[in-house]
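new request in #modeling-help
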Amino acid sequence: MSAIELNNLKYDFTAKSKRNLFILMGLGVILLILGVVMNMGHEHAAVDAHGGDDPRAHLGQRVWANLLVNGFFFGAIALAATFFYALQYAAQVAWSVVFQRIFSAVSTFLPVGLIIILVVLAVGRFGGHHIYHWMDQSVYDISSEHYDSILAHKHAYFADAFFWARIILFIGGWIMYQRWARKRTLEEDLVGGDSIFKKNITKAAIFLVFFGFTSSVFSWDVIMSIDAHWYSTLFGWYVFAGMWIGAIITFIMILLHLKNRGQMEFVNASHTHDLGKWMFAISFLWTYLWFSQFMLIWYSDIPEEVVYFQQRWEYFNGLFWVTMFVNFAFPMIMLMSRDAKRNKHYLLFVGTLIFIFHWCDTFMLIMPGSVGEHWGIGSLEIGMFLFFLGGFIFWIMNALSKAPLVAKNHPYLEEGLGHNI
Amino acid sequence: MNTMKLIHGIYDDEEQLLEGVERVRDNHFRIKEVFTPFPVHGLDHAIGLKRTRIAICAFIYGLTGAGLAILMTWYMMVSDWGPIDIGGKPNFFYYQNWPAFIPVTFESTVFCAGHGLAITFFLRSWILPGVSPKNPDPRTTDNKFLMELEVKPEDEARVVAMLRETGASEVNVK
């Protein structure tokens, strides 16, 4: 395909696609409202049955927790896309240049996801929900009946000034890099030359260092602190592996959609094969970290550590094991062979399946600490997921249609097009 | 067989070699072997080699390794000395403490697959201690690319010309 043809390629976000996505989002909203209405009655029963006022049984708690699950799941995919985009520059990768606009488009969802997380955090701080137990200031007060000596030891870490300063720093830093990177790649289309490319390499390397530390601390602050008494040293990597696989699946899905439309004919089987390898490999990374965290805690059996898995075992038994099994076994068995990684049906099936089960994994990270035994996957959860999914795809596809599909002045484009393994 | 002629075409550059290989194959001559100082991208495809089946071997060795490790941990922890009780976790059955056996099983799988692959490769290409090298020209371990062909005597002149045309720096007929 000649360079001139590549220059003119643009994604056409058709009215029909938009309509379908609005229907998906509308369906999500209807299910969400239905779920809230249906659960209004049960709410009192749950509180009565357990006696006293358990904030985890409140319907509001469940809605906020769901907002956090979806905001984090989709926001983290955009974050991992930003990371992956930076990684391609820092490692000076050529094969992925042909579809790096997909990475860039997925990363544009980052501000939306992060703002949702920020809203959940802020509402929690002002007492709107009780997902973060440590936000209740009375737990640090020795004269209060809510005094919690373990949390009081962590007071310096959870102190308002320090907590909010670092959250703002992380979110601000990521969004700044994401916007900068997006702007530069579009500028390269107009200017050409390799000065932008060289600048991108330096900035990407700096971002990767920043991201390496901050993504880990962010996952402690937003996810691990839900179970505020518990901690795990590899938690950050585990959450990171989860968001990474989500981003890879998103890339593959968009790529297959574009190929299906006939708009990415220059992407050959070797490109798809390599993305398939990423899906295969990161699934193993995720399982490796899941198991490393689980096995050590299970083996040493120390009460304050094992309580984390005890909750998941007791109240989420089926989902807990099924999530691990599906996310490990399906990519392993179905994507092991070379031919499978080059076959769009295999990629589509495994990708869709583990996308859903990685959502379940995020669900399992947040729900046991925030709603515990009052959890459920009903029309409330499904509705919120569908609404976010529709909005997420809409946002990305809209961003994709705004820029040419190929970074035509990228110095490695020629090499990337000839990718052959 | 003694009616066949052995031709060695020696190239200085891998691009020319690839061109030569394609030309020879297009004219339906059989390439016996190609010797290169480093793996040349796309050469296996150009010679018309079938895809390697070593991945299937790796899978079988891996399964063997996993099976052996499971057998070993079961025999030690459950059957022979068992039920061994470590940290309040008695091994009455294998499945009770399966997470504890995963690291061993994983390592054994990787060990068997890795060593099995290397040994299979050495055996298949017959690179073993004491075996004399099959390499017809030691310069192919330095900077030369050598294509070995077997042709009928009447085709000799045609093939030699073909090799020369595609940039062979040297052509030897035996």
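bot summary: Chain B has a mean pLDDT of 89.
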